[in-house]
């Protein structure tokens, strides 16, 4: 009898331990937040609320696949990508993935809408100025003879060029597109409260782990500062995408000490030199915010603010160099979230 009681006790304890182990393994993770390298930078992702570990693994797997997809289509830094194949091609049409064709179509829409301030055919110029994957020793004047978004065409799922020397660079829109793809993966898994950020371009949706709108820091555009070391402003965001273009992270210094940035004015073939140190754009998608931020940087603040007047769906914050050498000056469109 005593043995039996002992045995039952042992069984109950074993069952309790097993249940505890199962509970620990399947216990949901609260507000998971992680980072991963992608597109030559880092992605940061946060989901608000509890997520079961197995589900989290599935989401992370799907995000990896989506980012690899974008990379395989749009990276000019690898030879075996769709964009590199197109760049090597002559004038015959090159079939590409439907997603890739859609991004090029959107890039051309923004080229038309910005009167060519955004231009995805600047790659040989980007190379010439030392910011691209290859070298190009031709003069900007010579290169300008074969660049220009009007020489690039998308038909169905194929790209073609009027000049065999034309090359594509989607760096000014692909990161934003990558953020949108990751956000789609998260939405498709049923999540409504999350933040996705890749190298400063982001989508903030729903609420943060404290149940409030996301608070996003906009950096002070000073080259010597580490990432996020000094914030210029904090914006509260929900259901918005934001992208920033600036001259303070990727630039080169001339012998006289002046800087030139990686953003090219497609009309002059030279690095855009405007009053803007950084411009942050809010839009419905990160792909749009990304393309527009680059274009506004090229325009300079006067023209950019005028251009934005007829586009109330876009909001922007301009951080401008002070001509008198003092603190930065900020200008913003109505609707840009007030400082928090
Ligand atoms: P972003 O950081 O989004 O402004 O993108 C800048 C990158 O896009 C550069 O490093 C170039 O590879 C490319 N780029 C430079 N100038 C332009 C331009 N005017 N239009 C489109 N892409 C550009
Ligand atoms: Mg951009």
Descriptors for this entry?
binds adenosine monophosphate; alpha+beta; 9 helices; 340 residues
Average of the residue pLDDT scores: 93
The total count of helices amounts to 9
- Biggest sheet, in brief? 8 strands, antiparallel
The hetero molecules present are: adenosine monophosphate, magnesium ion
Helix content: 25-40%
Structural class: alpha+beta
Task: Please mark out the parts with pLDDT under 50 across 5 or more consecutive residues, or reply none.
Answer: none
Percentage of β-strand residues: 25-35%
- Number of separate strands: 19
Report, as a whole number of angstroms, the end-to-end distance. Answer: 71 Å
Across the major sheet, the strand order is 2-3-8-9-12-17-18-19
Q: Give the SSE order as H and E letters.
A: HEEEEHHEHHHEEHEEEEEEEEEEHHEE
What would you report as the Rg, rounded to the nearest angstrom? 24 Å
Give the overall shape: globular
Tell me about this structure.
The protein has 340 residues and is of the alpha+beta class. 36% of the residues lie in helices and 25% in strands. The protein has helices at residues 2-26, 53-74, 82-88, 98-113, 123-128, 140-143, 171-188, 286-299, 301-309; strands spanning 29-30, 33-38, 41-47, 50-51, 94-95, 152-155, 158-161, 194-198, 201-205, 214-219, 231-237, 240-246, 251-253, 259-261, 264-265, 270-271, 276-283, 315-320, 329-332. The longest helix has 25 residues, at 2-26. It is globular, with a radius of gyration of 24 Å. It starts with a helix and ends in an 8-residue tail after the last strand. Bound molecules: adenosine monophosphate and magnesium ion. Adenosine monophosphate (AMP) binds next to helix 7 and helix 8. Adenosine monophosphate binds next to helix 7 and helix 8.
């Amino acid at each position: 009898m005593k043995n039996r009681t002992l045995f039952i006790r042992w069984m109950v304890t074993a069952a309790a331990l097993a249940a505890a182990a199962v509970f620990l393994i399947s216990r949901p993770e609260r507000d998971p937040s992680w980072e991963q390298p992608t597109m030559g930078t880092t992605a940061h992702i946060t989901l608000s609320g509890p997520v079961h570990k197995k589900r989290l693994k599935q989401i992370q797997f799907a995000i990896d696949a989506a980012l690899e997809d974008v990379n395989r289509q749009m990276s000019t830094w690898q030879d075996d990508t769709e964009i590199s194949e197109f760049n090597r091609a002559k004038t015959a049409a090159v079939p590409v993935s439907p997603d890739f064709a859609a991004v090029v179509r959107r890039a051309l829409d923004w080229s038309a809408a910005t009167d060519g301030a955004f231009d995805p055919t600047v790659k040989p110029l980007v190379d010439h100025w030392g910011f691209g994957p290859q070298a190009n020793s031709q003069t900007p004047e010579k290169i300008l003879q074969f660049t220009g978004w009007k020489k690039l065409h998308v038909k169905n799922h194929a790209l073609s060029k009027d000049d065999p020397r034309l090359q594509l660079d989607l760096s000014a829109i692909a990161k934003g597109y990558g953020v949108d793809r990751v956000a789609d993966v998260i939405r498709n898994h049923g999540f409504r409260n999350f933040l996705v950020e890749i190298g400063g371009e982001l989508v903030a949706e729903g609420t943060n782990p404290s149940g409030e709108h996301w608070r996003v820091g906009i950096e002070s555009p000073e080259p010597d500062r580490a990432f996020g070391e000094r914030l210029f402003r904090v914006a509260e965001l929900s259901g918005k995408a934001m992208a920033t273009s600036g001259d303070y992270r990727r630039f080169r210094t001339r012998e006289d000490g002046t800087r030139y940035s990686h953003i090219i004015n497609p009309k002059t073939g030279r690095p855009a030199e405007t009053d803007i140190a950084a411009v942050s754009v809010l839009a419905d998608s990160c792909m749009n915010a990304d393309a527009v931020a680059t274009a506004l940087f090229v325009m300079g603040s006067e023209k950019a603010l005028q251009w934005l007047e007829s586009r109330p769906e876009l909001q922007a914050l301009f951080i401008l160099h002070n001509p008198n050498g003092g603190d930065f000056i900020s200008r913003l469109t109505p609707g840009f979230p007030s400082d928090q």
